[in-house]
Structures
1.
Amino acid sequence: MRRAIGLLSLALSAVLATTSTSHAQAPKEVVIGAIYPLSGNLAQIGIDSITAMRMAVELFNGKSDLNLPGMKKTTEGLPGLGGAKIRLIVVDHQGKPDVGQAEAERLITQEKVTALIGAVFSSVSATTSQVAERYGVPHMNGESSSPTLTERGFKWFFRTSPHDGHFTLAMFEFLKDFEKKKGVKLKTVGLMHEDTLFGADSGKVQEELAKKYGYEVVVNMAYRAKTTSLDAEVGKLKAAAPDVFLPTSYTSDAVLYIKTAKTLEYVPRMLIAQNAGWVDPQFVAEMNKDIEGHITRSPFALDLQAKKPLIRQVNELFKKQKDNPGGRDISEAPTRALTAFTVLVDAINRAKSTSPEEIRKALVATNVPADQLLMPWTGVRFDEKGQNTGVRAILQQIQKGAYATIWPFDLAAADVIYPLPGFKDKK
Amino acid sequence: MTAEVLVQGLVSGLLMGFVYALIAAGLSLIFGLMEIVNFAHGEFLMGAMFATFWAWALLKLDPLVSLPLTVLLLALFGLLVYHGLIRWILGAPMLAQIFATFGLAIFLRAAAQALWGADFRLVKGPLVDGRISLAGIFIGLPQLVASVGALCAFGLLYWFIRKTETGLALQATSQDRQAAMLMGIDTQRMFALGWAIGAACVGAAGALLAMFFYIFPDVGATFALLAYVAVALGGFGNVPATLLAGVIVGIVEVLGGLLIAPALKYAVVFSLYLVVVLWRPQGLLGRF
Amino acid sequence: MAPVARWPVVRWTAAGVLLLLLLAFPLVFTQPHPRHVVITIFLFAMLAQAWNLLAGYCGQISLGHAVFFGAGAYTSTLLGKYFDLSPWIGMAVGAVVAVAVSQLIGYPVFRLRGHYFAIATIAVGEIVNTLMINWDWAGGARGLFVPIKRPDSFVNLQFHQSKQSYYYIALGLLLLAFWITRKVEVSRMGYYLRAIREDQDAAASLGIPVAAYKQRAMALSAALTALGGSFYAQYILFIDPDSVFPTALSILICLVAVLGGIGTLWGPLIGAAILIPLGEWTRIYFGGTGKAVDLLIYGALIMLVSVIQPGGIMALAQRGRRRTG
C-alpha cells in the first residue's frame, strides 16, 4: 500500500511534469495553435497541411511580395503588430474528438495561443470549436465539410471552405447544365459513401438534392470504411446500373474501388466524386489511366494557374519545402489550410492586437478579394454563422492524367469527356 | 439481384477467402503451439506488404519474384520477435501476453509511419495484371494468382507439419509440451520455429496481397480482425480448419454485402461467427 | 493478492492521506489541462476497476467493454436530447440498459472460455459499433451533440466555467467503483468469483452456481462502465460511435488494468496514473512531428513493461512488501 502510494505520487509528479510547460511569452509574438491529424488514416492530409502553414509562417515572418491575404509587405513580421513574428504550435489529435478537445484547451490555457486552426475531421472540429467558443478564442477552419458545424450559432468559429451542401449542390447544378448543353438525358444516380461522419453527411445531402433535382436514386449504400474488399458494393452498383455514380471515399477505399471496378468491368456513364480520395495527388499519380474521365468536386484547381500566376508562384514555393519529399505539387488539402491560415493571420494583422475580441471583429469584417485567393472563389466574407459566403465549388475531370477544370463553364479549361471511357488496358 | 451478380460475388468472395485463410494460418499455428494470440499479426502483414513494395520500387522486382525474399524476411522477423519479446513472456499470464503483442502492434505501425510516411502506395503494373472472363464472370488475375498461391502455401504448410520430422516435433509440442520435452524435443526451438513459420505465412499473404491492394501503415488492422475471427471460427490451433473458416469469412462477407447491406457486412460475418461458436464453442473443427 | 483479511491502521491512514491529496489537487492546480489529465486518470481507473471485477476477480477476459461504455454515453445523451431528462437520470437508465445488454451478451458468450471468450467479445463489440453507425435515430455516424445547458449546474451535469465540478464527480465515481470492488472482494461473491477464476470446473463441483455468478459479475461491471460512459458524454459534450464504441477503447481499458495489476484493488488506479499521462506526454512532445514518434515510444514502453513486469505494477509493490517482511 505504501509503495502503491509512492508510485501514485510518482505518477502525479509525472502529470505535473507533463502539464507545467512554461513558455515565457516573448513580447510581440503571435502564437497560433494548429490541431491536425498527424497519425492514423488521414495523417498525410495533416502533414501536407502543416507543411503549407509552416511555409506561410516563414513568408509572414520575412518579407514577401506574394499576393496572398496580408502577405504583400516590405517589412518583416506583421506590420499591424509592429513586426511581431508568428509561432505555430502543431499538435496531433489522432482523429479523436476527446483528444482534440483536450489539446484545444491546453493550447488556449497553457500555450496562450491567440487563435486556433484545424481540425480536418468534422467530429474533432466539433469539439475543438466548442472549447474555443467557451474560452472566446477565434477558431479558423479550412477543411471540415460537415454543414452542422456552422449551424450551431457559434460566435468564434469561422470556416473559409465550402461545406457538403455547397459541394453537392454544385454537382447537381453541373448535371442540369450539362444535360442542357449536350442535349443528353441522365435519369438515375447511384450513391456509395463510407460510413464515418464525412460519408454519412455527404450521402444524406446527395440523397436530398437528387430528389430535389428530379433524379432517381437507384442505389444508396454506406460501406465500412477501410474495408478489405468492395466486391459486394461494386456488384450492387453493376446490378443497379445508375447513369451517374457519386462515390464518397477517402484514398484507401477509392483505390480499392478503382481496382475492383476494373476487375468487374464496371463503368458508369459518368462518375462524380465527393473530393477526398479523388484529389489525393498520390491517388491521381498511382491510378493514372484508370481514372481517365473521372470528375470530382473541388475547391481548388491547379490547372487554373494559367489564368492565375499566384497559384504557380505558391506551387513553386511549396515544391521546395523540405517537408515535402519528392517536391510534389500543392494539392487541395494544403491549399485549403493555407487559405484558412492566411485569412486568419490577415485578420490578426488588421486587428492590430492579439485581443480575441479585436481579432473576432476583424474576422467578421474580412473581405478578401478574389485575386488574393488560390481558390476560384469570389472572395472571403463571413456570414453571421461564420461561413464564408464567397465560396464556389468547381468540378474537375481527369484528362490525360491530370485534373482539368470543366465547370462552371465560364472557368472551364477543357471540355467534358462523356461518357466515361472505361479502362484502357483491357485484356 | 440477378444470379450473375450472386455468382460473381461468390467467386470474388472465395478468392479473397483463400487470402484471409493464409493470413489466419500463421496466427493459428502460433496459437496452437504456445497459446499466444499475436495481436500484432496485422502489422506483420503490413510489414510484408511494404517489403514487397520496396523490392518493387527499389530493386524492380515483381511481387511474385520477390515473394521468396519476403517470406524469408518475415521468417527472420518472426524469429527476431520471438527472441526479442515472446521468449520473455512465455510464463506470463495471458493478459500480459496480449499486452506485449499489442504494444508491438502500436510500435510497428508507428515505425512504418516514421520510416516510410503515411502515404498510400501501390505496386504498379505487376507481372500478373488484368482479368479473365468466364461465362460473364470476371476473375481478377492477381486475385486468382493470390488464391492459388495461398493454396500452395497451405499445401506446403500441411506437408511440413504432417510429413517432416521437424513438423511432427512441432505438432507434438503443440499437443503436449511436457511430453514433447521428455521425448527430447527442444521446445524453445520449436516455439522459435513456430514464430518463423507463422510469420512466413503472413509474409506470403502480404506479398500476394500487395499485387492488388494498397499499402500503408494501418493497412493490417481490418485484415487482422477478420483473421482472428477466422481462427476462432475454425478452431484455435487447427491450421487446416482455418482454410475452411477463411473461405467462409470471404464468402459471407460478400453475400452479406449483396443480400443485406454493404454497411453491415462485417456485422454479418461476426454474427455468423458468434452463432457458430455458440453451437460449437471450440470452433468448427477445433479441439479443447 | 491484495490484502483482504486485515487492513491495519497504517493503511487506512495512508489511503486517507491519498484521498486528501486528491481532494486538494484542483485547489492547487487551477489550469484546465492538469485537471483534465487527472479527470481522465479517474475515468480510466474507474473503467479499469469495472473491467477488473469481471476479468481480474472472475477471470473472464472481455475485450468488448466499450459496448457498455457506449450504452451509458448514448442512453443519457439520447434521453437528454429527445426527452429532456437530466443526465443523472440518464446515467441511471444507462446503467440499467448496460446491465440488460450485458445479460443478453453474457448468456451465450459465457459458455466460451479463454481466448474464445476474448475474441467473441471483440466480435460483439464490432457488431454493436456497426449497428450504432447505421442507426440514424441515434445520430448514426454523425454522432450526437449533448444539448448545451446554461448556466452551469449540478442537475444538468454541465460545467462550462471550470473543470472543478467534473473533477469531483469523476473522483466520486472512482470512489464508488473502489467501494463496490472492495465490498465484492471481501464478500461471499468475491470468494466465488476467485474460485471460478482459478478453476471453473472445480468451482462448479463445489456447488458454486458458476453461470449465475459470472452473470452477476458482468452486470456489476457493465453498470459501472456505463456510469463512466454517461460521464464522458457530459464531459466531452459530443459522442459518436468512433469515440465511444471502438475496440481500441476496450483494449485501452484492459491495458490500464493489466499494467496496474489485475485482480487487485489498487492496480487499476496505478495503471491509469501511469498510462494516461504517458500517452498525453508522448503526444504533446512528439505528436507534432508527423512521424508518429509518440506512438513509437508508447508501444515500446508497453512492451518493456510487459516483459519486465508481467504481473503488473502491483506485483512489483507486493514483491517489495514480501521482501521487507
2.
Amino acid sequence: MKLELRNVTKRFGAVLANDHLNITIDSGTIHAIVGENGAGKSTAMRIAYGFYTADSGEILVNDEVREIRAPRDAIALGIGMVHQHFMLVRPMTVTENIVLGAEPGSAVALDLRNAAAAIRALSEDFRLTVDPDATIETLSVGQQQRVEVLKALYRRAELLILDEPTAVLTPQEVEEFFSILRRMRSQGKTVVIITHKLSEVLAISDRVTVMRDGRVVGNLKTSETNAAELARLMVGREVLLRVAKSPATPGPDVLTVRNLSVQRVHGVSFDVRAGEIVGIAGVEGNGQTELIEALAGLLPESQVTGTITFSGRDLRTLDARRRREIGIAHVPEDRHRRGLVLEFSLSENSILGVHYRPPAASGVGAMLLDQKAIDRRADLVIREFDVRPPNPALPARALSGGNQQKLIIGREFELPPILLLISQPTRGVDIGAIEFIHRKIIAMRDARCAVLLVSAELEEVTALADRLLVLHNGRIAGEVDPSFATAEEIGLLMTGGRH
Amino acid sequence: MKLRELLFPLLAVVCAFAVGAIVVLIVGDSPLQVYSLLLGSALSWPDGIGYTLFFATPLIFTGLAVAVALRGGLLNIGAEGQLYVAAFATAWVGIKFAGLPSFLLVPLCCLAAVLAGAAWAAIPGVLKARFGSHEVINTIMLNFVAVALVGYLTQYEYRVAGDPIMESAPIGETAHIARLGRFIPGLPERIPLNVAFLLALVALWLVYVLLWKTKWGYEIRATGQNPAAAEYGGISIRRQIVLTMAISGALAGMVGINEVLGYRYRYYDGFSDNYGFTGIAVALLGRNHPVGILLAALLFAVLQRGGVPVDAFTQLVSKDIVQILQALVILFVAAEAMFRPLQKWIGGRGKGEAGGKGKGENAMRQEVAVVGQQAGVGKI
C-alpha cells in the first residue's frame, strides 16, 4: 500500500507540530521516520492513523485522496498502528485481545474458535510465534509486541506503523523482530517504523525520512546515507556519535562490592576505581535497579547482605544522606519518580539532597533556606549544563526530558562526587543532549571520579565504559572489554548464554 | 501566592452564592434581603466584626493544621480530636498550676495546648510510619477516642460537684488572656475576640516561613509532592510523616488557647462547632496557603456569624442556608475541572504549571481513547 502525506500541517496551541509535511511511503517497503523527541514524527503518523486530524493538507492512499477522521477509518483502509505503550488487556488471552472490537460470531455468541484458528494461521505465515490461548500477563514484552502486530494483521492491515518498537526489546529480540518485519515486506506489506535509533534505521529500512522541528529535512535512500549524515540532519549540526575518549588510567579502588545480595541481586562482587567508568549492561529488570539503589542507600539496610566498602569504609550502615555527604552522587534511572520533584522550581530541584546544609541552608542550625545561594547554585547548574529554558523559577515539569536530565546530572556533578552512580543517563533524551551528557560523564572520569554506569542501551555502555560487566538474573554473567566485544557476544551474556 | 490562584476559589464562592440565591428563591424569600442581612450583620461594628474575627480564629488554626499536613502529603481528618485533647490539656494546666503568675502560667498553658495537639496527632503519624496504616482511618477513629476520653475525664474527674453542665472547674485567673476589647476603643469586652486571634495571625506567618523559607518546609513539601524523590534526596519519609502530623496537630491544638484561655476560662465539653472538619474546607478553599486560609476562614466566619439574624429576621429561610452555602462552596471548590476551560481562557500565560498538569491527564485520556477507538468504540 502506498501512503502519502501531502502538505500536512498540524498545530497544537502555539506549537507547530507538523509544518507542511510531504512524506511518501512506497508500497512494499520498510520506511523509517527519524527525528528527535518533539520533531513531530509521531504526530505525523498519528494523523495518518486518524488519531489526530490535520489542520490542512491531504492524505493519499494508493494515489487517491482519503478522509481519515478516526482510527476506524484508517483500519478500514488497511492501516494499522502499534503504539509505544501497548494497548492490551492484561488478564485476557491473546485471542480475546486480538478480536477485541471486531469480535467474530453473531450478536449473541462469540466465536473464538475460528478466530483462534485464523490467528494461528496468521502467526505461522509471519512466524510470529505466540500461543493464542495464553493470557497477556504471562507473555514477555517481546511477545506482547507480537500480539500487537497480530492485532493489526488480523484487521487486514496492509500498512503497519510501529512507534518506537525496539525501545523495550533485548538485542536478540530486536533481531527477531526485524526478521519478522522483513518477512512482512516480502509478503507485500508496507512497514513504517518511527525511531530515534540510527543503527536500526540503517539495519532495517529501505528509505528514511528525517524530521526536525516539525519539518521534513531529508528524504533519503537508506543505502545511500550513513549514521553521521542522519544525525546531522536530525540535530541540525555536526554530532559526534561516539564520544572521543582517552584510555582510562585507573587509580585506587573507590568502591568495593563483595557478595552483595538484595532482592533481585544475588552475590555480586566488583570494584570501581578512581578515574574509570565501569559499565553494567543487561536487559532491564535483571537487578540493575536494586543494585544501584542498594549502593545509593535507598534500600533498607536489613535487606542488604554482603559488604560495600567506599574508600575503605563500610557503607552499609550509612543512610542516603550520609552517603551523599561523603561524596557519592546518584543520577537515578527514573527522573520523574526519583530524580525530581516535578512541581518544584529548577532552583528548588537544584538543591535536592544538599538542601539541609550550607550553602543552601544558613542561619542558626542551618534552618533557613538561603535563597540567594540557592539561585546561584541553580544558575551555575543551568549554565554549566545548558538547561533550557534557563529560567530557575520554572517548575521542573515544564522542561523537556533532556533538559530535566541535564538538570539532575548537573546537580549531582556539583556535589562534587568521588563516586558517581549513574543509571540510564540518556533515556528519552535527544541526540544532541546525549552527546553533551556523554562528554560530561567522560570529563568526570578524567577528573578522577569513579563512575558506575548502568544503561539498557548497549551502544551507550560500550561507548562509555572502560570495563563492562553484564548482569543477568541478578548475577554477573561476565566481564568484557567494551572496545573489543561484539554486540552478539554481549547479547549472549545478557540472555544468560555462555561463551 | 499569586493573584491568579485566588481567582478560582473566588469563582467557586461566587457560584455558591448564585446557587444559594436560587435556593432562597425556591424557599420563597428574597435573596437580596437574605444576603444583605447575612453580610450586613457579619460586618457591622462592633458586634459583627468582633464575632466574625472570633469565629475565624479556630478556623485559621484548623485550616493551617490541615494545610500543613496536605503539603506533606497527609490528610489529617483528626484536627477535631486534636483540638479537644489540646483544649482539655490547656484547662488542666490552667487549673493545676493556678497559683503561678501570669507570665509563667499563660505560656505554660499555651505549651500544653501545642504539645497535647502534637502528641495526639503524632499517634496516627507513628502508626503510618511504623506499620503503614492509613492516616485517614486512624485520625478519624482517634476523633472518637479523643471526644470520649475528654468527656470521661470531665464527667468523672474535673467537674465541679453539683454543676449540671459538662464543664471543668475554672482555670486560674492568671491564665486568662486579654480580650481585644481592652485595647480597642469601641469594642466592648463582652465580645470574646481575644489575643488568640493575634496568635492566629502570627501562626499564619510562621507557617508561611516554615513551608517556604526553612529546610524543614522544603522537606515537608518535597515529601508531599514526591516521596520517592524526597527519599532519594536523603529525607527520611518516616520521620517526615511523624513530624508533619505533629506540626499539624500542634496547630489544631492552638484552638484550645482561644477557647479556654480567651473565651470560657474553663474546659467546656463539646465546645467545638466542627472546627476540625470545617478546617478541611478552609484549607481546600484557601489552596493550602496561609493567605488563602486567612480569607477562607474569614468567609466561613462571616457565614457563621451572619446566619443568626437570617434565622431571626426572614420569613421562611432559616440559618440552615449557611450550611447550604458552606456545602456549595466546598462542592464548587471540589469541582475544579468545571472551571478549567474558563481558567485557560483567562490565564493564557502560566502555561508551565497549569499546562503541565493538564498534559498528564490529556495523555491518559488519549490512551483511553486509543484503546477505545482501536476497539471500535468510537470517540470518547
